Amino acid sequence: MGSKKSKPQPIPDFETPWRDIDWNEKEDLEAELTNIQLNHPELRFVRILLHGPVGAGKSCFINSVQSVFRGEIKTKAFEQANAKKSCTKTYKSYTITDKNAVILPFVFNDVMGLETQDEDGIHPKDIVNAMLGHIEDGYKFNPISPLSDGDPGFVREPSLEDKVHCLVSVVPASSISRMETGVINKMDNVRKEAMNLGIPHVVVMTKVDDDVCPLVNKDLTQIYRSRKIKEKMLESSHRLGPPMKCIFPVSNYHEESNMNNTKDVLILTALLQIVKSAKDYIEEQH
Ligand SMILES: Nc1nc2c(ncn2[C@@H]2O[C@H](COP(=O)(O)OP(=O)(O)OP(=O)(O)O)[C@@H](O)[C@H]2O)c(=O)[nH]1
Ligand SMILES: [Mg+2]
């Protein structure tokens, strides 16, 4: 009689959340972000640069942040479903406003997505140019040749406000495992440049709602009980470099027409860490 092989049981999710999160603190997070004081005469805002693979949800994250602060769905930056090539082609700054149309003390820069092939997607040197504040708003990226001194669109003497104060890598939870080595290597080079410049680096892990974990698909508040999501965060940490405490899972507003408190809290938690890191960087530098 052959012994029956028992099927491997899936590892259960965590009994209690492994990261503390208070789903009632949306207003507190919003207030803290709205009232951030930069204490620097040359700065009205911190500049946050988003980069990552094509279709990761960079533009959607900007739109999601704007939606949270306006309390309704906004689509400032163009997004595209199933884009083969990057939908974002130009360098653009996005200010964020509150319900009274007051400009908040953080600005996002959206860039073209990274691709494995060198002739497609943003040139990694242009991400470094952006970090250094050398790229003029509205510049159309050229994947073949990065911007250099003397080219139209090159800002020779960037101000402190033109420079980037926090680098954010945006990666989808649903495809971090499948991300090509070519793209990972390019992201790694950008991270090294940021580290040389002392610029903080945070990862926003998007698409946690996209069939990654049945528990989270059903109820987003269970995100820090989900073993699968933690695995994806660990994988993001290993593949991209930053420690777990710098990885923030979010579910962007991508299909819904109503606001959702859980999404808001996750987005605001990520944003607060980004803005605080940017502020620390400015204080250390000047
Ligand atoms: N399910 C889900 N879909 C998302 C999420 N974030 C973005 N999307 C969708 O993913 C697609 C690509 O999003 P974009 O914001 O255009 O991605 P991008 O990183 O700006 O891409 P490029 O500009 O083309 O490099 C769009 O259809 C978004 O609505 C998310 O958190 N969950
Ligand atoms: Mg985009």
Automatic annotation (TrEMBL):
<protein>
    <recommendedName>
        <fullName>G domain-containing protein</fullName>
    </recommendedName>
</protein>
<dbReference type="GO" id="GO:0006955">
    <property type="term" value="P:immune response"/>
</dbReference>
<dbReference type="InterPro" id="IPR027417">
    <property type="entry name" value="P-loop_NTPase"/>
</dbReference>
